[in-house]
Design brief:
The protein has 131 residues and is α+β, with helices and mostly antiparallel strands. The chain has one domain (14-130): Hotdog Thioesterase (Thiol Ester Dehydrase, Chain A), CATH 3.10.129. The protein is built from 1 helix and 6 strands. The protein has one helix spanning 57-76; strands at 25-32, 37-44, 86-88, 98-108, 111-120, 126-130. A hairpin with a 2-residue loop joins strand 4 and strand 5 (111-120). The radius of gyration is 15 Å and the shape is globular. The model has no long low-confidence stretch (mean pLDDT 92). Keywords: Apoptosis, Cell membrane, Cell projection, Cytoplasm, Fatty acid metabolism, Hydrolase, Lipid metabolism, Membrane, Mitochondrion, Mitochondrion inner membrane, Transit peptide. It comes from Crypturellus soui. Its EC number is 3.1.2.2.
Length: 131
């Protein structure tokens, strides 16, 4: 983890607030501009534990919001989450790698509607779905 994660004014992106490498939100996001979607590889570290051995639901909501928000930012520019609905389907084991995927569904005026999904890298388990 690089040391210069701070922004001007000493602030930090919430996901990058843990200084211990591998302990929190470890992720990389990839934009597919032509398909208007963002894919994120996410590995929850031990500081994100909820039930024993499993990522806390709030950390799953956070990575979904960040991935969906990144997609919305690309599509519409500066945005804020107005409503986030998540169906948790299966727990995410700590230190596992999952795919978080977001795609544009539609735009209505100033409103941008997106969907998201968290699934195992082999596609066999859907951990969460979001709109």
């Amino acid at each position: 983890m690089e040391a210069a994660r701070e922004r001007p004014g000493g602030t930090r992106l919430f996901l990058r607030s843990i200084d211990v490498e591998g302990a929190g939100f470890e992720y990389a996001m990839f934009l597919n501009a032509s398909e208007r979607r963002v894919v994120c590889l996410f590995q929850p570290g031990p500081y994100l534990e909820g039930p024993p051995g499993v990522a806390h639901g709030g950390s799953i909501a956070t990575i979904i919001d960040s991935t969906v928000g990144s997609c919305a930012l690309f599509v519409a520019g500066r945005v804020m989450t107005a409503k986030l609905s998540i169906d948790y389907l299966a727990p995410v084991p700590l230190r596992s790698v999952v795919l978080v995927e977001s795609r544009l569904e539609r735009v209505e005026g100033r409103k941008v509607f997106l969907s998201g999904q968290v699934r195992s890298v082999d596609g066999g388990t859907v951990h969460a779905e979001a709109t």
